[in-house]
Amino acid sequence: FRMDMLLKQEWTDPRLQIPDDLFDIGEDAVALPAYYFENLWQPDLYFLNSKIVEIATLTQRFSSLTLFRNKTVSYSARMHAIVACQMEFQHYPMDTQICPLNIESFAYRFDKVRLKWGDAGVSISPELKLLQYHIGEPLALKELNVFTSEKGGNFSRLVVYFRFERQIGHHLIQTFAPSTLVVMLSWFSFWLGLDAVPARVTLVVTCMLTLVTMFTGLRSDIPPVAYIKALDLWMASCIFLVFAALTEFVIVKVLDKRYQKYKSRLSKTHLLEANAWCNCNNKIAQNKQQWPKLCWINDKGKEKVLWREIDHMSRIIFPTIFVIFVAIFWPMLLFSKSNV
User: What family is this (predicted)?
Assistant: First the structure.
């Protein structure tokens, strides 16, 4: 992540020789040109997990230098930094990232330079607005004495932890709502029947391609990771439900073909009455049984056809499965987010 910050450092150097006429009468501090900083001892701070750090410039560097009578030096600079952060995307797009910023002296060990946070610590501008994240006050400020094997000694280190909480509003509108509508649209195929085969196939296949295209675009928004994200689970479930609707159509079509062949065979052998394609008298029962049973007469004397019953049940089963999935997915996601 990129940071724009005002970094203020203060230290006391007893070796400084300051002429008395440098200060105005009654003044304990004097502002010096920033280039004087090059002539002073510096604590050589650096950001351990930074990729790029630079002082902001326009016509000159945005920095200031103040010298006090007690030989305290105050240096402030407007800086830009790109800081590395090990992010975890298991809960994406409701993830919360905890990113540390580590500050350490590069050459001076702990017994030479000891770093401490100032009274103000780290403050974040209340006007700061991020596009996808909400950032609050820093979680913690730490002052550590850390052994560094690369430099062979103990060094003073300052650590501040930032909490970035992703805002879900964008993904509700761009991801979850559209994918839910596409899944619901695929259920309309259960009402079309087999007399509208092209329309039914086109509807389900279009829903499938829409979800796959949406999923591909969403995966390009974040770095590739080896584990499954919450968004992957959601989109995979939506795709599976649409694929199941397509599979249901194939099964229904196959059963309908068997049913038509069954009717044709029975009509040729005159095993059924002219006005009924399916009955359950003893003569039929003694013939070769069909499995699955393609048709039957219910208790009310109405003919029931298997493929039609599957379509009717799918109108209830598919929405029920999706509602159960949503009722499990969102509470688990919200619970895992609250524990971060």
Answer: Belongs to the ligand-gated ion channel (TC 1.A.9) family.
- pLDDT greater than 60 at residue 27: yes
Do 157 and 102 form a contact (C-beta atoms < 8 A)? Answer: yes
CATH superfamily assigned to domain 85-166: Neurotransmitter-gated ion-channel ligand-binding domain (2.70.170.10)
Which one, of 144, 248, 232, 140, lies nearest residue 194 by Cα? 248
Q: Which CATH superfamily is domain 1-84 in?
A: Neurotransmitter-gated ion-channel ligand-binding domain (2.70.170.10)
Question: Given its phi and psi angles, is residue 284 left (phi above 0), alpha (psi -120 to 50 degrees) or beta?
Answer: alpha
Long-range contacts of 207-216 (CB under 8 A, 24+ apart): 207/182, 207/183, 207/242, 207/245, 208/239, 208/242, 208/243, 208/246, 210/182, 211/179, 211/182, 211/183, 211/235, 211/238, 211/239, 211/242, 212/239, 214/175, 214/178, 214/179, 214/182, 215/239
Cβ contact 41:113 at 8 Å: no
Q: 3-class SS at 133?
A: strand
Distance of CA 209 to the CA centre of its chain: 22
**CA–CA distance, 329 with 235 (Å, rounded to integer):** 12
- The CA distance from 72 to 69, in Å, is 7
Q: What is the bridge-based pairing of β-strands 133-135 and 72-83?
A: unpaired
pLDDT tens column, 234-270: 999 999 999 999 998 888 888 777 767 766 766 666 5
- Classify domain 169-262+300-339 by CATH number: 1.20.58.390
